[in-house]
Amino acid sequence: MSSPLSADHPAARPPGHGSVEALITQARRLRGDVDAVRRDSQEDAADPRGRWQRALYDLALHQLTDLDAHLAQLRDGPAPAPRPGSLLSRVGSAEWNLLTDEAEWSGELFRILGRDPASVPLSLDELPSLVLAEDRPKLTAMVTDCLVDARPIDGEFRVVHPDGAVRTVHMMGEPVLDDDGTTASMWAVLRDVSELRRSQRVVSETRDSLRRPPPPPWHVLLGFPDQGRPGLDLAAAHLPSAPAPGPPSRYGGWYDACPLAADGETLLTVGAFEAPGVEAHGPAVLVGALRGLALAGVRTAELGDRLGPLLASTALPPVRAAVYCGYRPLPRTLTWAHASCPAPLLFRGGTGHELTGPGGTSGQAEASLEAGDLLLLHTGTLDRAALEHLLSLAPRLTGADSAQDAVRLVTRELGEPQDRRDTCVLVARVTP
Questions:
Q1: Strand order across the beta sheet in which 333-339 lies
Q2: At what angle do helices 403-413 and 194-211 cross, to 10 degrees?
Q3: Cα–Cα distance for residue pair 239/313, rounded to 1 Å
Q4: 42 vs 160, which has greater pLDDT?
Q5: Which residues contact 86 (CB under 8 A, 6 or more apart)?
Q6: 173 φψ region: left (φ > 0), alpha (ψ -120 to 50), beta (else)
Q7: CA 180, CA 13: separation in Å to the nearest integer?
Q8: Is 62 exposed, middle or buried, given 0-12, 13-18 or 19+ CB atoms closer than 10 A?
Q9: In angstroms, rounded to a whole number, what is the distance separating the alpha carbons of residues 140 and 391?
Q10: Class of residue 277 by CB neighbours under 10 A (exposed 0-12, middle 13-18, buried 19+)
Q11: 70 has pLDDT over 80
């Protein structure tokens, strides 16, 4: 059985050398043109649109520089190493023989996966041990589809190097069949695309900043923990229902995360007022009251009942709907209660569902969570179609690198402001 050429094998000078040289000339000319346009259109560094344009120009120049390097490899053979800061990386290859259970890796693949080149190549069963826990089901599914259904592999996953560095790897593979048409082995090429994905994220984040609403007042005044809480990666957003020339001044709901007890427990709350359009100070007053109750030792099941009398002595409208969650990092337990507010959405292993629990604030439910789980709380202003759409995003949400990335995804997928009602969302990602 013959194997495909190793991705590291320095080939002889390929045919069409003159054509490759012409492509190199065109690529370098285009790179120069793009660089000239970038210099002629410098924007204000403080302007979000200017930052987004600069990030796009930088990414385009990176890719054109790497295209030049790719073409040079076609002309001259592989370069010893990519240039510093390049989006380009060498490609490694592997073949796993299903008949002998032997594995052959190219030298570059050991480096891509953070393995000692002198070590023994890992079998397909051992390969997931290098992969980030939440990405292992994705890798397993790709390999199974390839071996069982002869489907080509084309996907990405993250690997953890011995020094703790996490790298994103793009894998393409296919089954190798014997004379009887039976899968005898699997061959694959892998490339480290971490720098490319980082540059693409910069473009995406700067683009999103053009339309991302500013954080609401209570987020700043009361110190929403952007850096997370013990055992949780946190992010949240207020999504106004209609565009406005400046920061929104009226709100229909709130969100918050704050310490609940001295043992690292966290209170997560999302809710909405009975009357829409509360002045900016309203949610701040309510969140402050909730934090006071939490610090006084009031448990999640009692918060709704205790909050009502406090609001009655203010000019604020009553709470229409709210969900109150207490999360204990050890042993990763969530207790929650709600009043007329949808239950939290739980995303795990590429699937999502609504938690089941009590129907009111008189009782509370409990759920055991796992590292990599993602909770999504919202104010109940989303219609059923929007909720079903969020649940369909489960593979992308559980594959997000952070809670902030998940919130960006939700913000994009919920559509333009004129297509939705005033909404608050809070994402909590369970960390290892």
A1: 253-259, 266-273, 319-328, 333-339, 365-368
A2: 50
A3: 29
A4: 160
A5: 62, 65, 66, 69, 195
A6: beta
A7: 36
A8: middle
A9: 22
A10: middle
A11: no
**Residue carrying the six token digits 């979000």:** 48
Contact (CB, 8 A) for 349 and 328: no
Q: Tell the residue number behind the tokens 């048409």, with chain if given.
A: 181
If we measure between CA atoms, which residue out of 365, 349, 361 comes closest to residue 397?
349
> d(Cα 343, Cα 339) in Å, to the nearest integer?
9
CA distance linking residue 170 with residue 186, whole number of Å: 16
Is the pLDDT at 122 greater than 90? The verdict is yes
CA angle 186, 189, 194 (to 5 degrees): 135
pLDDT digits (tens, 9 = 90+) for 18-52: 688 889 888 888 888 888 888 777 655 455 566 66
Structure tokens at 47: 């302007």
Q: What is the pLDDT of residues 177-207, one digit of tens each?
A: 888 878 888 988 888 888 777 776 766 666 6
pLDDT value of position 255 = 93
